[in-house]
Fold:
Amino acid sequence: MSGTVQKNNPQRMPFSVRVAIFCLMVTAMLFYPTTVLFCGCMLPAFVAALIDNKPDRTAGLTVGAMNLAGTVPALLDLWEMGGRIDHALALLLQPQTLLFAYAAAACGWVIYFQVPGVVSGVLVKRGQKRLVDIDRRQQDMIRKWGPQIAAEAPKQPPQSLG
Structure:
């Protein structure tokens, strides 16, 4: 038995993740005014990512993308003004800045809750139409080739799912 025993510690972060976090922290400190404004405007995205308990965890992504779209104008204003911390705080304290960023996040929540229902409804309707088309083609084949072409199993009509 050798003198070094390696323990598998599942709690330990990989080196690449630690380096990425370190680089993120250094970047946040270098661009502190941008970080302050960004974090203040992106709060809904952070909350969405934290409270999302579904396996696919898409709330943070959906809300975050829209929230980022609402935050970009404030970031551009900050950079245009010179990017100092007093400018960042002034922008963060303007109601229109937060209203724009948070309204965009609210649009992200609407997308998150509404789009899956719309998409599933469209897919159900498409599936029902396909079943009707298959049934119509089968009837055409029976008319053209005779009833012996039909399957032995009893025919079931398409069921309505919605």
